[in-house]
Structures are given as C-alpha cells and as structure tokens.
Write a structure and sequence with these properties.
By secondary structure, the chain is mainly beta. Helix content is 4%, strand content 34%. It folds into four domains: 55 residues, no CATH class; 53 residues, TSP-1 type 1 repeat (Single Sheet); 96 residues, Jelly Rolls, CATH 2.60.120.290; 91 residues, Spermadhesin, CUB domain (Jelly Rolls), CATH 2.60.120. One of its GO terms (biological process) is proteolysis.
C-alpha cells in the first residue's frame, strides 16, 4: 500500500449506552461440614460496568429470576457416622391437632449399624417431633375444653396446710382445676383399689398445689416423670417419705430444676431436696415392678431472688404471649423472660402470629426474639418479620424479648 496515501487514524465512540447490570458471583467459601453433605456460601452481588470499571448496584436492578444461589452444596469426604431416623409415628390423636414422633440413632456408614450416640454429637440432628392434624373433631367444634387458657399462676396470699381442700389451693393459684392433678394421698380401706389406679396414672403429670403427696410406687412404666410448679417468688422443698428403690439394680430418682440437679438412691428416706426456683422435675427410673418413692412437697417464699420483676411464669395447655407488656418506663432496658412449663408428657409449640423487629436486612444484635429449649439448653434467635413456628423437645421453654 506504499504508493497509496494512508488515511489518518482516529477513534469514534460507537455506543454511549452502558451495559445493563448483571450478577457477579465470587468464589465459594469453606464447606460448612467437615464430612458429608454441607453448604458453602458464595457472595452474589449486582454490578454494572461503567467506563471500564465494575460499579456495585442495588440488587433490584439485576434480573431477580436469574440471581444465582448464595449457598451451594459441597462434600469434602464421606462421614464415618451420621444420624438416622425411624419412620414418623401415627398422629397422637384421632381428630384435631396432635404430634408425631420418631426415634433417632447414630449410624456407622461402614457397618450400617447403630453405635453410641456420642460419635454423632458434632453433627446437627433433624427434628424428632412435629405437629399433625387428623381433621376436625365434630363434637368439639366451636367449643373449648375447661382449663384451656394459658394463665400466669398467681402467688397465694397464704400457703395452705396439707389438710386444706385441693380446690382451695387451686383457687389461690388462679388456675383451672384441670390444669394439674389432685393431691395424692395414701389409700385406706375400700379406697385402696381406686387409689392404686390413680397412682398408676401419676406419671407425666404437672402438680400446681402449694403442698401435696406424690406416690410413685407401683407404676407400670420404667421411667416415671412428674413436674411440680409454683409461681415466681416461691421455691419447692421435697421430703422423701418412703423409698423401695433397688440401688444395686440401677434404680434411681433424679431431681432437676433451673438452678439445681441431684440424683440418688441410697439413704433417701427423710432426705430433703430444695428446688431453689419455682419448678422442679422428678424423674424415677426403676427396674423391678412395684418399687418406687413416695414424696411430700411444700412451697415457700424463695430465700434468694432468682427472677426479674418483669419475668412471667406460665402454665397450661395453650394461650397467648404479647410483648411489649405494660412495664414501667424505667424497666424498658431490661430483658424480660417468659417461662413456660407444661406436663412432662406434653411438648410446647410457639407460633409467632405477628412479629415486627425491624427490616429483614437489619439483623442487629439488639432486635431479636430468643427462644430456649430448657431440656437441651439450645437457643434459637428470630429476626425481622417472620411468622415463625418453634417446637420444644421437652416440657419447659423460655422466651426473651430483646429491645
């Protein structure tokens, strides 16, 4: 081309419109599990190229339907042990709402046989309890069973003696008669058969009287658990009147509360146990039929304050919790707790009908609801405006409302 004149070199702008925003995916982080199936988090952002540089944009400017996943599955190696579960049981009720349960066990991936659960203690375990519905109950539609309201137990103006009528003690507590079983007493004469049948049903009950006797001898189940509940500001003392436990066979009785734990078998008669708080769980494990203990319990004003003035104690099968409550202005900075205790054979479901803890993205350390499962001491934190459903593994739960 040498003989031909060369044109001048020049650059022209071909398109002034910027490229549309697009999704940008950063490399995934470490796997959440050291073995087995886990999740890795990858950062997904909305960017736009302007003048040759990527500029961060708001997410709504990128196509929502095309947004990549923020978590991706990952596997580092096969786990030697893992949790396995049985099939779900049938619904506990033939109509209405009930529960389903399943058994969990630790499984070896090599032998495919159950092993000691300690081998699986570092792995998360799925739920073993869930709600179920067997359809409406025609005879109960539009009605409510007695004592179906979850009510705070009010402290008695005086603590009745053992000779006082059970219904008077329930009246002092401000709870329905059906909320707890009547006081158990020793049988006499022709009442022996009737009393014996009532003793067999003592397991799994919640006792709300100020004082009473609980006979746990002759129960059919190997494990028998009862709970004693009183208002806040009170504590419970238990005296073991009789014991026929066979210590060499491994029979034992366990006392547990929020601030104490004690187990024993030998030298039990006339020994005294103090709960230190307003609830006490008694669990008896026997091997030989007919063995067991007879307890007498009393309540009294607590020697030390273990609660805050804005705390609440609730007993009963169902009810409503509203926060914030009507507290004085000087207590607004205090974290108030709500304690829920039901019968040992029951479990607790907490459903948030309405929650407003600020914007979803503003998950600060100050605005949240904390729910604690007392039996496992595991806590769950809820943020934002989610209408969550929480279920316990035991019969006690605590709720804290932060800010």
């Amino acid at each position: 081309c040498q003989p031909v004149p060369k044109p001048e070199s020049r650059v022209e702008v071909c398109d002034l419109n910027p490229c549309p925003p697009r999704w940008k995916v950063s490399p995934a982080g470490p796997c959440s599990s050291s073995c087995g199936l886990g999740l890795a988090v990858q950062l997904v952002t909305c960017v736009q190229t302007l003048h040759g540089q990527e500029v961060l944009q708001e997410e709504h400017l990128c196509p929502v339907a095309e947004k990549p996943l923020t978590t991706v599955p990952c596997v580092i190696r096969t786990c030697s042990y893992e949790w396995s579960f049985s099939e779900w049981s049938e619904c506990s009720t033939s109509c209405g709402n009930g529960i389903q349960t399943r058994q969990d066990f630790c499984l070896s991936s090599l032998t495919h046989k159950p092993v000691n659960p300690l081998f699986c203690r570092h792995f998360p375990k799925a739920i073993v309890l869930r709600g179920c519905s067997a359809g409406p109950c025609p005879e109960q539609e539009g009605t409510q069973s007695p004592g179906a309201q979850l009510q705070p137990v009010k402290p008695a103006t005086h603590l009745p003696t053992a000779a006082a009528a059970p219904e008077h003690r329930h009246k002092d507590l401000g709870v329905p008669l059906s909320a707890g079983p009547q006081e158990q007493t020793k049988p006499s004469g022709g009442e022996e058969d009737t009393a014996k049948r009532s003793f067999l049903c003592v397991c799994g009950n919640l006792f709300l009287n100020a004082t009473g006797i609980i006979n746990m001898t002759g129960v059919e189940s190997r494990d028998c658990t009862v709970t004693i509940g009183r208002p806040l500001r009170e504590e419970i003392s238990v005296t073991i009147l009789e014991s026929s436990l066979n210590c060499t066979a491994g029979e034992v009785v366990l006392f547990s509360g929020r601030m104490m734990w004690r187990t024993g078998c030998r030298k039990l008669p006339l020994s005294l146990i103090n709960s230190r708080t307003n609830t006490l769980i008694v669990k008896q494990r026997v091997v030989l039929p007919g063995n067991g203990v007879i307890l007498q319990y009393n309540s009294r004003t607590a020697t030390k304050k273990y609660y805050q003035d804005c705390d609440q104690q609730l007993f009963g099968p169902q009810g409503e919790i509203v926060n914030p409550g009507q507290f004085p202005a000087e207590r607004q900075g205090v974290v108030c707790r709500t304690f829920i205790t039901v019968a040992p054979r029951q479990r607790i479901s907490i459903r948030a009908l309405k929650a407003d803890l600020g914007p979803e993205g503003n998950q600060t350390h100050f605005n949240y609801i904390l729910v604690r499962d007392v039996s496992t001491m595991r806590t769950v934190v809820f943020h934002g405006k989610k209408q969550f459903l929480w279920q316990s593994t035991g019969s006690q739960a605590e709720i804290e409302f932060h800010e």
